[in-house]
Structure formats: structure tokens, C-alpha cells
Design goal:
Helix content: over 70%
Low-confidence stretches: 1-12, 283-288, 418-429
Number of strands: 0
Strand content: under 5%
Length: 429
């Protein structure tokens, strides 16, 4: 075959070009919609993130085609999902004779949901990588506008005694106790803290420095006024890491990788030994103090249960069987150890090792992007280490949105500058 014949044989056909074009347009529609909804959903009810990302996953299935490059992180998560299914065999939370015709019993099978979520969320992740880069800045703009609106509403709630959120709940005939309303009114702070640094850098890069300041101020007011602490911790840690990576580059990512490995490996030992010397909750000491005291009690109890079955754990959803643990241990590393044993903890460590290695590679090519990636990763890790269950479908969905936001940021930055000092930009995936 001549060189000309080979070129003709291997050149893309018009049909393939059309398919790629329409797939790219469809990816843009889904990513833009998800970005615009991120802030409002965080304020109105974060559980809807699972519906948003799940629906985007369903809409992505028919457009995936065959990709040239794999997504290793999804393979690690698949292994974790499979191990969670295997752990159902010894899970203390598993019904003796589950009735698969009853929705409540099926809905409670977390391992099965993890497999379904991995398929749908993974489909959205894969398709999102085809989003046209020229739209990246506008996607970040839609995300930032939504975050700004949510932050404004939460700041007003913090200063007015949850007036707006309470009115919305009452209008929907979903009245709750005052303490429940206050807690839920501040849930959007977690979303804003997670997405803050990409949004803030976008605002500064587009000349809206005042907007970045107001977004930070609103988040601080909302977090303090609505008594949610971990978003502030995530905000501060994210800022420190952002500065460090942009200043020193890849070595900071490797340091953070090492700290993450230590966290997943030794969290049970830390709370089993050092945790015993930390103060115990003494009852009513104010909302914030009580919250941290209760957390410490949960972590100590969880560490003790891990020591009883460290190899296999108590099985998926095992956290739910003890009254001393309200649904989950509020710590990702402890929950993996408690429910899935050393294998689950090892897979969680492997996943984050891959993430930090990817961030390190990105920082080597472009410290600006690497710093934003690292800030988002630290925010997710810190919030997950203090607040939510590792299997909560909305929290996993928000993680998907965070990854897509990082990719979008890299594409936006590629179109902002042509300076040779930044080199070629490579997204996390």
C-alpha cells in the first residue's frame, strides 16, 4: 500500500467527524448545565447532586464511543466497588434474607448502588473530557455565578436567622425543627468551599477581584453564622496548598501524597492511642464545641471497633449498626477501615496516590493549574475527613463535579495565555 493509500485508509471519515462534533456539543450541554446547577443545588438540597450527575451519566451513555486513553482512577474505584460487593457476605448490616422486591431493602444496599453510580458517574466523567475548550471560561463563569448566588443567600440566612431557607422549606411544606433548618441552610457552604479556589482564580483572572473578595467574605459569614466549621478549614487549607504548589511546584504534591498515605494508613491507630488523651464531650458546651466533642467520641469508638476486625472489616454499611456511630464515622479513612478492612483502606490510599501523582505531574508542567487542583483535592479530603460518609451518593457526585471543574479550569487557562513559561497544559484525567 502506498503512502497516499495509507493516508486515505486511516484518515477520519466524515461520519466519524460528525459523531465527534455532536458528541463534543452534547458534552458541552451537559457540563454547562451541571456547572450552572452546582451552586443552587448546594443551597436548596445537596442530595440532588446525585440526581444531576446521575442524569448526566444516563445522557452520556450513548455518546461514549471508544476512547484512546483510559481513566485509571475509575479502575481503582471499580476494584473498591467490587470489594464492597464481596464484603456483603460478612457485613453485619446485611439483612439475613433481603427481599429484592421491596424498594427500601434494595435502596439500602450501598454496594449495589456504588456499582450503579460508578457506571453513571464514570460515563459523565468520560464524556466531559470532550467538552470544547473554547467554552471553558464560560462554563467557569456559570459555575461561579451559581456559587455566588448560593453564598449570598447563605450569608443572608446567617444574618437573619435562616429567614430565606426557612421560607423556602415552609413553602414546600417541608418544615423542620429549627436546629435541622439551621444545619441544612449551611450545607451549601461545603460546595462553595470545595469549588472556591477555581471560581476565585477565575474571578481574579477575568478582572473581577472584588467578586473573589465578596465570595470569600460571604463564605466566612455563612460558615460562622450557620455553625458549619469544616468549610472554613477546607478554605484555609486549600489556600495554603494553592500558594505552596504555585510557589514550589511538584515537591509539594509529593509531600501531600505522603501525608495522605499516612492519614489512610494510621488514622485508626492515631485515634486508638492519641485519641484517648483528647478531651471527651461533656454535654452542652455550645453548638460548635459539642459538634467537635461528639466527633472525637465517634472516632475513638470507631478505632476500637476497627481493632476487633482489622483485616476484613465489618462489611459494607457496618457503620450503621452501632448507636455510637450516627450512620457513618464522619471520617473517610476510618470508614474504609471499619467497613472494608485493610483492602478497602489500601484501595482508598491507591486512589488518592494516583490523584496526587497526577496533580504532581500537572504542577510540573504548570504550577498555576497544579495549585488549583491541589486546593480542590485538599478541600475534598479535609471535608471528607470531618463531615460526611464516604459512600454518600451526593458527596461522590460532588466529587465528580469537582474533577470536571479542574479539567475545565485547565482548558480555560490554556485559552487565557500563550506564555511559554507555562508549557503544555494537561488535565488530571
Amino acid at each position: 500500500m502506498s503512502a497516499t493509500d495509507q493516508a486515505v485508509a486511516f484518515s477520519p471519515s466524515p461520519v466519524n467527524l460528525d459523531w465527534a462534533l455532536w458528541r463534543s456539543r452534547w458534552a458541552l450541554v451537559l457540563v454547562m448545565a451541571a456547572a450552572a446547577l452546582t451552586g443552587p443545588v448546594g443551597y436548596l438540597g445537596q442530595n440532588a447532586y446525585a440526581a444531576v450527575v446521575g442524569a448526566a451519566g444516563i445522557a452520556s451513555l450513548g455518546w461514549l464511543g471508544v476512547r484512546r486513553d483510559p481513566v485509571p482512577a475509575l479502575g481503582i474505584l471499580l476494584a473498591l466497588a467490587v470489594w464492597s460487593v464481596v464484603s456483603m457476605a460478612w457485613s453485619v448490616a446485611m439483612p439475613a434474607h433481603p427481599n429484592f422486591h421491596r424498594y427500601k431493602e434494595v435502596e439500602g444496599l450501598t454496594a449495589m448502588k456504588l456499582v450503579l453510580e460508578l457506571g453513571l458517574y464514570g460515563a459523565f466523567i468520560v464524556l466531559a473530557r470532550d467538552t470544547p475548550g473554547v467554552w471553558a471560561s464560560r462554563i467557569l463563569g456559570a459555575l461561579t455565578v451559581g456559587l455566588g448566588l448560593a453564598t449570598l443567600l447563605m450569608a443572608i440566612d446567617a444574618l437573619s436567622g435562616d429567614a430565606i431557607y426557612r421560607a423556602l422549606r415552609l413553602s414546600a411544606h417541608a418544615a423542620n425543627k429549627p436546629e435541622i433548618i439551621q444545619r441544612n441552610a449551611g450545607r451549601g457552604c461545603f460546595t462553595v468551599a470545595l469549588m472556591f479556589w477555581p471560581a476565585s482564580v477565575w474571578l481574579r483572572r477575568t478582572g473581577r477581584i472584588l467578586g473573589a473578595f465578596l465570595l470569600a467574605l460571604g463564605l466566612v459569614i455563612a460558615s460562622i453564622g450557620l455553625h458549619v466549621d469544616s468549610p472554613l478549614v477546607a478554605l484555609v487549607l486549600g489556600g495554603v496548598v494553592l500558594f505552596a504548589v504555585q510557589k514550589f511546584g511538584r515537591p509539594v504534591a509529593w509531600i501531600l501524597l505522603g501525608l495522605t498515605v499516612l492519614y489512610f494508613a494510621f488514622a485508626p491507630a492515631f485515634f486508638a492511642v492519641v485519641g484517648q488523651s483528647l478531651p471527651h464531650w461533656q454535654g452542652d458546651q455550645g453548638l460548635a464545641k459539642a459538634s467537635w466533642g461528639i466527633r472525637l467520641d465517634i472516632w475513638r469508638f470507631t478505632a476500637a471497633k476497627i481493632s476487633e476486625r482489622p483485616w476484613l472489616g465489618w462489611g459494607i454499611d457496618g457503620s450503621r449498626v452501632w448507636d455510637a456511630i450516627p450512620l457513618h464515622p464522619h471520617n473517610a479513612a476510618l470508614q474504609l477501615w471499619l467497613e472494608l478492612g485493610v483492602v478497602g483502606a489500601a484501595l482508598g490510599t491507591l486512589f488518592w496516590t494516583y490523584i496526587w501523582a497526577s496533580i504532581g505531574a500537572a504542577a510540573e508542567a504548570n504550577r498555576f493549574n497544579g495549585g488549583v487542583y491541589a486546593a480542590v483535592a485538599v478541600a475534598y479530603l479535609s471535608i471528607g475527613g470531618m463531615s460526611f460518609g464516604v459512600w454518600q451518593e451526593w458527596w461522590l457526585a460532588l466529587g465528580v463535579l469537582a474533577v470536571i471543574t479542574c479539567w475545565t479550569f485547565a482548558e480555560a487557562f490554556a485559552h487565557w495565555t500563550t506564555s511559554e513559561r507555562y508549557g503544555e497544559l494537561t488535565p488530571l484525567g
